[in-house]
Amino acid sequence: MANRTEIMQRVTEIVGEVLGIPDLKLTDESTARDVQGWDSLTHVQIIIAVESEYGFTFSFSEAAQLENVGQFVDAIYQKTQGA
Question: CB-hemisphere CA count at 13 Å for 66?
Fold first, then answer.
C-alpha cells in the first residue's frame, strides 16, 4: 500500500497527465482554481483516472466534499488503507 507522500506524487502525475502539464507542482492547499485548465470536465477525468489507478470509486457526495488536493490525497489514502 502506498503512503501519503507516494499518493501525492501519483496524484500530481495523474493531474499533470490529464491537463498536459508534465512538470506540474501541487501542494495540499492547491485547488482546481489554482491550476490552468483544471475545469469541471478535467475534474471528472482526474477523478476517473485516480479511481482506475487505485481500484475504487468515490461517491458523488465524497467527491463533492473535496476542497483541495490535500483532502483528495487524504481520501485516497483512507480508501487504500481500508478505512
Answer: 22
CATH number at residue 34: 1.10.1200.10
Short-list 50, 52, 39, 40, CA closest to 72: 50
pLDDT in tens, 19-73: 999 999 999 999 999 999 999 999 999 999 999 999 999 999 999 899 999 999 9
Write the pLDDT tens digit of every residue in 36-47.
Answer: 999 999 999 999
CA–CA distance, 53 with 75 (Å, rounded to integer): 14
Determine contact, residues 62/24, Cβ cutoff 8 Å: no
